Amino acid sequence: MSATRYLAANRFGLGRRVGDPDVPALRDAQAGLLRQLEAFDPAPPPIAALPRPEAIAETYILFREQGDAMRREAGGMPTANARATESTPQRETRQALNDLYADAATARFAVAVASPTPFAERLVHFWSNHFAVSTEKQFVSGFAGAHEFGAIRPHVMGRFADLLIAAVRHPAMLLYLDQILSFGTDSAFAIRTRRARSGPGLNENLAREILELHTLGVRSGYTQTDVTAFAGALTGLAVAGLGRGAARRLIPAGSRPGDTVFVAELHQPGEQTILGKRYPDTGAAQAEAVLRDLAVHPATARHIATKLARHFTADDPPQPLVDRLAADFLRSGGDLASLYRTLILSPEPWQDGPAMFKSPWDWFVSMARGLPVPALGERQNVAGLLRQLGQPVWRPESPAGYGDTVATWAGSGGLMQRVELASRIAGGIGDRADARALAPQLLADALTPDLAQAIAGADTPAQGLAMLFASPAFLRR
Predict the structure, then answer these.
(1) What pLDDT does residue 199 have?
(2) Cα–Cα distance between 246 and 406 in angstroms, integer?
(3) What is the C-alpha separation between 326 and 343, in angstroms, rounded?
(4) Taking the model in full, what pTM does it have?
């Protein structure tokens, strides 16, 4: 057992803050983490103030209408450099879309830095990465923050089934994994438009990723037939206002832009058999029934237990911890708060000192939490800084999300970026923060005599700060 105070704040949380209560005893650290589960606020002010999905969708619709108008003026021909010929209103709308993403990323950062429940915030980030969407797609960009804030946060202390359904049905996920392009090949829509139809019809992206990434995991026994049948059950899910073509006219009357809706005419009719179980055609309820069964499947319990154990221990998580978490998941029916309690009270996450390497996000947030003065100016581009560090907010390269192993983040190039940023921030506030006083508060029982001596011997206050934040102890959790 070692570095209990550092692990409580960094492995379980997002870094110590000046003035955080000291927790020299393991039982006190565990009690403090358990209290955070009750105190978590799913909608703190910076997040509650952001635009709702309806406003985000209306901005996209306006941008699309402006683009359509520009093409009509060009006689229906695509322009060689559409952005250069944008009208002022269209340019303003494009900027509004960019602002939606930037403001959401800034709010996420502000909440993480100020949160009195950093363990709960870490869990939000864990699940957001588990149900990853990516702003690589233009339509996803504005909705990515709303996905985490509206689908993940409200369910992070509830049941996994509810979290799964909320994450999958959110517009960001339906847009990212092309669900809005999917319709049953025998649906009323397909039959009525068969001659004019040129699209692929059934799109399996969402079904495949739910099985492979969100629930059962790879090599868990599902087949291509299961994927196709599940994709059929998912047909009909759409996002009001954001589709194109004939399907857009099928959106139920009264739907608000950005609403997730079920369009019966797009749904593949008939019973579906998935993992050997038959699901009658109950419309929108058919897919939900599949999701609820997947959420409590033994393979899902094992998949979630392994990912959670890895996040809180090491690349190769201890098997006893994985077994304990999987058993809890099955026994409780996917009660996430029960799972977290088992994790906190298990011995494995508290052993062996800091081992995992902080991701750029973790490192940047923990640095900001540890400073006695703001690290950034009011107009600082948080999203841009995380992009420079190699982990753009909500922009992983695949639906698998960002990697959660040491090798993902411990490369020399990434380290140089951190050293450069730490030096830059330290240069701006070095005269208002004393690294010699901060080091024992932030590193606690992970501070070594050698590091303390090196910081004390720094030539300047700024150099001392940079040494603290780029030290091996601070880079790990």
Answers:
(1) 58
(2) 48
(3) 11
(4) 0.95
